[in-house]
Amino acid sequence: MEFNELIHSFAARHGIADLPIDNGTAVLEIDDMTVGFVYQPASDSVVVVAEIGYPESDLSSQLASAMMKANYLFAGTAGAVLCQNPESGAYALMREYRLAEHDPKTFEGALEALVNSADDWKRVLAAMNDPDAAEDGEDVGTDSAAAEKMPSMPAGGFLRV
Asked: Which of 103, 98, 85 is nearest to 27 (CA)?
């Protein structure tokens, strides 16, 4: 399936008739989260980037440590990679999907899993920025606690090497 067709199909299923795609790039708001789609012609894939927010400056090293631990073997990212946008400074969860492996239904399922994982990280970031706002008294104020809160790789998942 081609990039434009896949993205337009996904958008149409969610009530967006004419999602603009500019030079292989599209952006949507999904569940109050900015999600970008970037076509990679060399691998015929789409990289999906879900923005999780901005840490307070004094939390940067603490959050970076939690993110690095979560990235290790994708233990806390459900197969994606946590990263920081070098231009905006925003933290994000990012994953590449090969177009040949997806139709609109499988892509929607994969995207849902990515957005759910990004939403978990968004809550961790919010709790780290404001420890008093953590839900149900959960401890997400340390890097190890934050990494432990993340979902593990789904059953049947694999590592690309």
From this structure: 85
Could you give the angle at which helices 104-129 and 60-71 cross, rounded to 10 degrees? 150
Residue 86 within any structural domain of the chain? yes
Q: Is 154 part of any domain?
A: no
Residue 156 domain-assigned (yes or no) = no
Tell me the C-alpha distance between 91 and 96, whole Å. 17
Q: Is residue 24 part of a domain?
A: yes
Which pair of structure tokens corresponds to residue 53?
Answer: 């927010």
Domain count, the chain: 1
What does pTM read for this prediction?
0.80
Q: What is the pLDDT of residues 6-47, one digit of tens each?
A: 999 999 998 998 899 999 999 999 888 999 999 999 999 999
